[in-house]
Specification:
This protein is of the alpha+beta class and 764 residues long. Helix content is 33%, strand content 25%. It comes from Flavobacterium taihuense.
């Protein structure tokens, strides 16, 4: 743990006291989003201290030209990134002739900010003394509407405490923004139009290259003494990409004044005329009014929490951690649009470009399947189906593969590969397996097979063709090898026969073959359509099976473990416990050469295979591999602790399982990896959910039936969660004495608890 300033609370993230050193971290932690857009917790007013300005719009990206010192054949030409969008939140303020800036105030006291996760709003309050001696109390609430997802709302209140004040509110919208992580420090937005009408303003800009058009809008209302003021701007500043209004207000000592600002974005992804759409959105929001918009927000979040909440008794930090993770997942993606996906930083920062990784299939889909309607998870699968042609093109143009072999990109916005590190882009090919596994996992959990004949089988065939072509035959071993890869442990590059990669390659071919046979028998018209489209012959299928039946898996008979890769035991095997703490994290302390030669593991690798294919191995095998590889794992990936927590619980290592749970659930809140100011780790938050549901709850799907093997950390009095299993809502409540099951719906449901069948009747 590297920070400890967030106050423990069951439903809120709370910071007390103004600390300039934590501003950027808090900007990440207090971020808000609504699935369509997101906003870091930047101050509305000008702040001259260190800050990381960030506003983001789902699906709007820019192809930032790749910057490398030595170009290699096959490098993607660009790294796609979600852009820092035009700033809609800005409200500069002048008080008695002085610009209001917390960084230059002579005193800031009673500073408090709260992210209320239960109701979906962000609040900030404080008292400040300006250099001119004016003391003010400030209270701000901000939220991004779930009901009208193009709208954000700010209520900014100021009360002069020691003298009358002339306050000038200066709300603005500004498209002259840049990205924190731009490769070439170029601008991404081209201004097109600035328009104003009364208290409304519109700045329209489009992205260079990709030509997404965005209208950023604002509407302002001034309040004084509890009454709405019929005010127009006293003056207006306009330039090509920015418009700023001035509202002059005289406020008596002790009286409250406020500006309510409605703002947000309308985008060409959804509208032909973005300005007219913005005008309509403003009118809809004004008709509702601030109070109703806030109540709608509270109601919308109540509905989300009704299904997705996990309760923990007796451990406030654990409770706060899981709710923070669930909250951020729902802020990032709500499943409304199959064109969208889940970036590793969501709407909280720019690292990783905001693009799609294998995290979605490996970690996020289980959360969305179980806490929402199955259509949400199906939309995530459809996202990949819609990009199949690009995956085939990627394999052909960059790797020379043929015949419809598909390599899904490591990083993407539109299906094209846009990751610019060779050892990741072209070697971390195991991501193909996660995409196939997600199709299997979706059917296993939902029972909805229709996706496979409609769309999924084409994806499985493309992936199987890739693995068949990627394997090479070794005369020396008389088996098929997969050489020159990077496994999930990115602290090894260009190694041979990564166990996880080889295993999932075999599984993908076998699973694709099984589904081809099933579809041919049960969906003959779909089978005929697909076979004609992909031109798959029996001869090719036989070749697939030849490879899948003879893939090499590195193993140590002496240790009774599978080897992470051929040369793993040749390393200097010093366990993590003997590594000097001053050398951690090694990715920030060591040269990359030293990291690659070390035995240290960034995240679950062999153990990722045991997680996906648990029923393929014995518990004894898991324990031997877990004990060996855990001793070398430094957990410097956000995706690491959750898998280890799940497997530790299965192995009855409950103290370890609990420690890993706390680490994954509070990874950002406590800033374990010393990088939270760059943004939160959104996709790994789904792994936190899994560590409770699959780890402590022991949930598995076997056949068509839910199984639970509940365990409880000694630190907890009890916990509960809900699962939407095949359109039936099952609630599981666990304490130290018993497990209780309750069911919402019209049909009874049989589940297994510790191997014993339990018939659960629906509640009346």
């Amino acid at each position: 743990m590297n920070q400890d300033y967030i106050k423990p609370d069951n439903w809120s993230i709370i910071e007390e006291g103004f600390d300039r050193e934590s501003v950027k971290s808090s900007e990440s932690l207090f971020s808000i989003g609504n699935g369509a857009m997101g906003q870091r917790a930047n101050f509305e007013e000008n702040y001259s201290g260190e800050t990381f300005q960030g506003s983001y719009i789902a699906g709007i990206y820019y192809p930032d030209k790749t910057k490398v010192g030595w170009w290699k054949n096959g490098y993607p030409k660009y790294f796609a990134k979600v852009l820092n969008a035009p700033n809609w939140i800005g409200i500069n303020i002048e008080i008695n002739g002085e610009d209001f800036d917390l960084n230059s105030c002579t005193e800031v006291k009673n500073f408090r900010r709260e992210l209320n996760m239960k109701e979906g709003w962000y609040h900030r309050s404080f008292q400040a003394t300006l250099k001119n001696g004016t003391e003010v109390a400030v209270d701000i609430r901000r939220f991004l509407s779930l009901d009208i997802d193009e709208v954000g709302v700010i209520n900014y209140e100021i009360t002069p405490l020691n003298k009358d004040a002339k306050i000038i509110y200066k709300p603005y919208i500004d498209a002259g923004v840049t990205n924190e992580d731009a490769n070439w420090e170029e601008k991404f937005w081209e201004p097109l139009d600035v328009k104003k009408s009364g208290n409304e303003a519109f700045v329209t800009a489009q992205t260079f290259k990709t030509h997404f058009k965005v209208t950023t809008f604002m509407q302002n209302t001034i309040w004084a003494r509890g009454e709405k003021q019929n005010m127009s701007p006293t003056s207006v500043d306009t330039i090509a990409d920015k418009i700023l209004f001035y509202y002059d207000v005289i406020v008596a000592k002790g009286d409250k004044s406020a500006i309510q600002k409605i703002g947000g974005y309308t985008v060409s992804l959804n509208h032909t005329d973005t300005i007219s759409a913005a005008e309509n959105v403003i009118q809809t929001a004004l008709t509702k009014g601030y109070d109703q918009l806030l109540q709608d927000q509270i109601d919308a979040w109540a509905k989300i929490w009704e299904m997705s909440d996990i309760t923990i008794d007796g451990d406030v930090k654990a409770q706060q951690g899981i709710r923070f993770n669930i909250f951020q997942l729902n802020q990032t993606y709500l499943g409304k649009d199959s064109r969208l996906n889940i970036g590793p930083k969501g709407f909280t920062g720019e690292k990783y470009g905001g693009s799609t990784y294998w995290d979605t299939e490996a970690y996020c889909i289980p959360f969305y399947m179980a806490t929402k309607d199955q259509q949400v998870a199906r939309n995530l699968l459809t996202y990949r189906y819609n990009q199949l042609d690009k995956a085939i093109e990627n394999a052909e143009l960059n790797l020379g593969f043929k015949n419809g072999a598909a390599l899904y990109p490591m990083v993407t916005m539109n299906g094209e590969e846009c990751h610019n590190e060779w050892e990741i882009t072209h070697e971390e090919i195991h991501r193909n397996g996660a995409i196939a596994f997600a199709i299997y996992n979706y059917y296993r959990f939902t029972g909805d097979y229709s996706y496979i004949p409609e769309k999924g089988l084409e994806v499985l065939i493309g992936i199987a063709r890739f693995w068949y072509q990627r394997a090479s035959f070794s005369k020396n071993k008389n088996q098929y090898m997969i050489l020159g890869v990077t496994g999930p442990n990115e602290y090894e590059n260009n190694i041979n026969n990564n166990f996880y990669t080889n295993y999932i390659a075999k599984w993908c071919i076998d699973y694709a073959y099984e589904q081809i046979q099933k579809v041919s028998l049960e969906y003959p018209s779909d089978h005929k359509r697909i076979m004609e489209k992909v031109k798959l012959s029996e001869t090719e299928l036989a070749e697939w099976n030849k490879v899948a039946g003879n893939i090499y898996f590195p193993k140590s008979e002496e240790l009774g473990i599978y080897l992470q890769q051929d040369g793993f035991l040749d390393k200097d095997l010093v366990p993590v416990k003997d590594l000097d703490r001053s050398q951690r994290p090694i990715n920030q302390k060591w040269s990359w050469d030293r990291v690659l030669r070390s035995p240290y593991i960034k995240q679950a690798d062999v153990l990722q295979c045991f997680y996906f294919f648990e029923d393929h191995f014995s518990k004894d095998e898991l324990e031997r591999n877990f004990d060996f590889y855990e001793s070398f794992t430094v957990h410097e990936s956000s995706l690491s602790p959750c898998v280890h927590s799940i497997q530790a619980a299965l192995l009855d290592k409950m103290d370890m399982a609990y420690a890993f749970y706390l680490r994954t659930s509070r990874l950002d809140l406590d800033d374990y990896n010393k990088e939270v100011e760059e943004g939160c780790h959104i996709t790994s938050m789904a792994g936190t959910w899994m560590s409770i549901v699959e780890g402590f709850g022991g949930m598995r799907v076997k056949g068509d039936t839910l199984h639970f093997s509940p365990k409880i950390p000694k630190e907890w009095g009890g916990y509960s969660f809900k699962i939407n299993f095949r359109n039936q809502i099952l609630k599981i409540a666990v304490d130290h004495k018993e497990t209780k099951l309750s069911l919402e719906g019209n049909k009874e449901l049989t589940v297994y608890v510790n191997g014993t069948p339990v018939l659960v009747q629906p509640k009346n």
